[in-house]
Amino acid sequence: MDEQLDFDEPGPLCPACGIEMTEDGVDTADGLESCHRCPRCKLVIVVPGLWSS
C-alpha cells in the first residue's frame, strides 16, 4: 500500500462537541477503514474506501 496519511493536516471539527478530530483507523465488517475520531467525546466518522485493497 502506497497511501500515506498526512497527520499534519488539521482534521474536521467534531459535529457533537466542536473540537478538532484526529485521523485513525477502525476495523469494520468490510475491513480496515479510515476514520476521524474525536478525542473528547469519542465520536467516530468513517471515511469508506481510503484503505480498500
Provide structural commentary:
By secondary structure, the protein is mainly β. It has one domain: N-terminal domain of TfIIb (Single Sheet). A three-stranded antiparallel sheet has the order 1-2-3, with no helix packed on it. A hairpin with a 2-residue loop joins strand 1 and strand 2. The chain is globular. The termini are close together. 4% of the residues are buried. The model has no long low-confidence stretch (mean pLDDT 81).
For the sheet with most strands, the description reads:
3 strands, antiparallel
Shape: globular
Q: Please give the CATH class.
A: Mainly Beta
Poorly predicted regions: none
Whole-number count of domains: 1
- Tell me the total number of β-strands: 3
Number of helices: 0
**How much β-strand is present in the residues?**
25-35%
CATH topology: N-terminal domain of TfIIb
In short:
The chain contains no helices and three strands. With 53 residues, it is mainly β.
SSE topology sketch:
Elements: E1 22-28, E2 31-37, E3 44-47
Distinctive features:
53 residues, mainly beta, globular, N-terminal domain of TfIIb, 0% helix
